[in-house]
Write a structure and sequence with these properties.
Elements: E1 2-3, E2 6-7, E3 13-19, E4 41-47, H1 54-62, E5 73-77, E6 79-83, E7 88-90, E8 93-95, E9 99-103
Antiparallel strand pairs: 1-2, 1-6, 3-4, 4-5, 6-9, 7-8
């Protein structure tokens, strides 16, 4: 993942979330420090974890403490590029590409009819 032309994270991940709001699918508050009107998106990366530790991280998501974990990467940015062979989920829609460039456009809302 690159942000502002610099490498932010490199390696396998369990979770990579780019949020402009606090909530994630299913009502989980994955990024409690995100605000719709602050002009930034929050990047939350949880590096690859062992399956046995998954309940710990799940409990941190439920209690809104995942970004406080020292193994979790968190940064506020205006744009980023994610390089991955995996598909991306964008508001419930699966998108497949080798890279994704995400940019926050302040005070805007796209409506697709």
């Amino acid at each position: 993942m690159e942000t502002e032309g610099e490498l932010f994270y490199h390696g396998p991940v369990t979770l990579c979330a780019c949020c402009n709001g606090r909530y994630y699918g299913g009502g989980f508050e994955i990024s409690p420090k995100s605000y719709l009107n602050d002009g930034y998106m929050d990047l939350i990366i949880l590096p690859k974890i062992r399956k046995i530790t998954a309940p710990l991280y799940f409990s941190q998501i439920v209690t809104k403490r995942l970004t406080d974990n020292e193994k979790t990467f968190h940064k506020k940015v205006k744009e980023c590029t994610v390089y991955t062979p995996a598909a991306m989920n964008l508001d419930g829609e699966e998108i497949v590409a080798s890279s994704y460039h995400l940019r926050l456009i302040e005070k805007s809302l796209n409506l697709i009819l």
